[in-house]
């Protein structure tokens, strides 16, 4: 078993751990506070099984299946918060662990129908704490289009900031079928074995078709990513582009 | 997952879903309208969610099931039956149609449901009817002379301006409408290509093919017409309800209609008022027919966000009304025929077509500028409550300084171009 060339050290993990859990607990507290504050707020969530957990094109399960759950609270004021859980397994790590992604933000809608949002999210891993990282984001949605820009000072624990931009499009084909298209670009630092670094771009894309059958959503997608090995500390040579199938039940 | 496995999964999904799509539409229960209420539940604007981050658009399942649960809880609490629902993102609500067991209890139930904090708003379902008569058949086409239509078409035909006609069904394969309907949707039931007289007649006035050697020339013969069926014809008359009209309005906003024609009338309706306001805020010009039998012209003509239009032979019209040809209008009717129609529905259709011509020439015109241009030099008195007969040549001259017709006749020398 090899360690990634630029995986954060154990000492960094130890220092951040208490902060990480505090951040996660903080978001949970916000959700509960919002929920208690206004009975008009709405809860929603989902449970999913995916054949491969692709996050911005890269597999976080080493091309294996994952079980995921999410919960979301929308306050009438426009504030929202929630959390997402998934099993993950990094190619260079020894076993299964959990990712807990908590998020909170504010969304507003213009008379034109275009909505904007700002928010923060925090990704926490239960074993590989060195990969934990926070993000801030801003985005828009207009009809079937949406776009977001994310910034993090340490993407998956790597030194140096990173910016990720994405554009998404969903086109309904009748009441129960839709086409989904996603394109993303990551701008991050790449390190060489001699301690030098340079900026690099990584692109990912997704083309899928989704079906609503009763209370379930089924989706079949092709997912691809370029240059993943140098952008993600855990992406090994076994990583491959391919087809992903998911079954979700929203509630 | 291999390519072969993916293909097998896709085939199975299609086999299951295609029959679902065919059976999706529900028919409107005509008799049940007066014991139904509309319950609006809030929907949050779409935002970041890790579980659906790849599919971004509004039409995701996220939240829908939660609202459905809330609706079911409300139905159980107030002894209601859920009929159907429709998302209205323009208002940030999901609109549920619920049936009350006893029609006499509707006002009381509305008050009770409104007090539940989970409910954004609630109202009774209203019925609307179209505003037309088709009992006169005389060989006249008033706009050919009064509006100098042939001259006007030399400078504007409504090219690419999108018009939403919310009405009964339009006969899309009528020889004079062939290829003119860009989008057709049925918000009443699941049937395709329902051809009805009123909708077909309004469509002909707005957008019939010009210079094709047959029939009539529409006011905006190169516009992009959306035929949105929200009303249906019964033995006695054509009617619509709050829910079907609201669905069509939401669709028109989604499709970025620039002009909406509402040749229908009924009681004041809060849900429709909000959708009209949302449309006006997005710069959509909404034209509505006046009901001459009502003191205020009926709704939606009485709403501040619309251009209210009556037939120019009607004498007792409410304040702030535009007058346009509305008697003995030759136009398309069903079964590939043509006929003569009368009513403020058709006066509104004329103004809708004219607004499309104006928006072709000046796409960024505000609603106020359009109203001023249509009302002409009597603008001041219109604001004070008087009527104004629409003059197409003068209106076009006012918005662009373009002399469309015999200018000495039509152009008001006192008016200034708005662009």
Structure report:
- The complex is a heterodimer of chains A (251) and B (419).
- Chain A has 2 helices and 14 strands, in the order H-E-E-E-E-E-E-E-E-E-E-E-E-E-H-E.
- With 251 residues, chain A is mainly beta.
- Chain A has one domain: monomeric porin ompg (Porin), CATH 2.40.160.
- In chain A, the strands form 2 sheets. Chain A has a 12-stranded antiparallel beta barrel with strand order 1-4-5-6-7-8-9-10-11-12-13-14. A two-stranded antiparallel sheet of chain A has the order 2-3.
- Chain B is globular and about 65 Å long.
- An 8-stranded parallel beta sheet of chain B has the order 7-8-6-11-13-14-15-18, with helices on both faces.
- The C terminus of chain B is likely disordered.
- With 419 residues, chain B is an alpha/beta fold.
- At the A-B interface, strand 1, strand 4, strand 5, strand 6 and strand 7 of A face helix 1 and helix 2 of B.
Key attributes of the depicted protein:
heterodimer; A: 251 residues; mainly beta; Porin; two-stranded antiparallel sheet; 13% helix; 54% strand; B: 419 residues; alpha/beta; eight-stranded parallel β-sheet; four-stranded antiparallel β-sheet; 18 strands; 32% helix; globular
Q: Would you spell out the secondary-structure blueprint of this structure?
A:
The complex is a heterodimer of chains A (251) and B (419).
Chain A: H1 10-37, E1 42-50, E2 54-55, E3 58-59, E4 66-74, E5 79-88, E6 97-109, E7 115-125, E8 133-142, E9 145-152, E10 162-172, E11 177-191, E12 197-213, E13 216-225, H2 228-231, E14 242-250
Antiparallel strand pairs in A: 1-4, 1-14, 2-3, 4-5, 5-6, 6-7, 7-8, 8-9, 9-10, 10-11, 11-12, 12-13, 13-14
Chain B: H1 3-22, E1 36-42, H2 64-78, E2 80-88, E3 93-100, H3 106-114, E4 121-124, E5 127-130, H4 142-146, H5 149-152, E6 162-167, E7 181-186, H6 197-207, E8 224-229, E9 231-233, E10 238-241, H7 242-254, E11 259-262, E12 264-265, H8 270-281, E13 285-289, E14 306-311, E15 322-324, E16 329-333, E17 337-341, H9 344-361, H10 367-375, H11 379-383, E18 388-389, H12 392-400, H13 407-410
